[in-house]
Amino acid sequence: MQIALQLVGGLILLMLGGEMLVRGAVQVANRLGVSPLVIGLTLVGFGTSTPELVTSVQAALSGSPGIAYGNIVGSNIANILLILGIAAIITPIAVSSNALKRDSTIMVLVTVVFAIVAALVPMGLLAGLVFVLALAGYIFAAFWQERGLAAGALDDAHGAAFDKSLALQEADPALKAPSEIGRSAFLSILIAIAGLALVVLGGNFLVSGAVGLARSFSISETIIGLTIVAIGTSMPELVTSVMAALRKQTEVAFGNVVGSNIYNILGIGGFTALISPTNVPSEIVRFDNLIMIGASLVLVAFAFTGRRISRREGAVLVAGYAAYVALIWP
Question: How does it sit in the membrane (predicted)?
Fold first, then answer.
């Protein structure tokens, strides 16, 4: 009972704290005159990845690399097979944007690089620094792309980083038009700080519950991280992608998943390695990283053939996730 309360309570605190943190930070940035585009690509874009970040860092610091990296890899697998599969079943997802095609290629590239690095060397300070700098470069490139679109200099559609932030803004109107909310800067800072505290507390509860669950049932911490923890911390992506599908904003749903996977590997993987260097568990290196690569390639194949992901293909993705969980669960 205590373990269940830790797991459920931790997830609730992560979701609530993450929302408060992003809302408060966006309000502060808006009052400081930060560009809405910068806010969207950074603060809002990172919003749905906050639960994964805090959980992975706390797990690594607690000596549970299986939960830390299982959360990252499992979240990416769930994003593609489960979340995008459900979104495609709701509404077939059109993929006609050249920008999204480029982002899909980047997603596959960083996935392969992560798998190679994890297999050859520990995820230490150097690897973490390279990953974080790569994410900064990706966001910077996305910023210039979106600026070109706003100025009419480019004809391409928005990229995945923009769609990731847009998906959260559409799900939360308070983020869509922050300037319309009358709130003092001091109160916004307090909300952001309170949100950060809740996220940290929720991450601690979730990691403790996951470790307790693994020990109680003699299940590998890695499996718990790949499944229960990963699905739990991916709830923001599920909500935002499903809402985008229901609104027929199918490219936003696709970009949200692609952008989240890039953020997860480069951002969460990078910061986790910087804060708590450790080896990626061998079972993830030998099997789950390969599944993550395979799922990414299948997604790209579905997206590029016919420039859409049909309901049938969405069902294949969801069935693939069910098969994956059944295969790794003891």
Answer: Multi-pass membrane protein
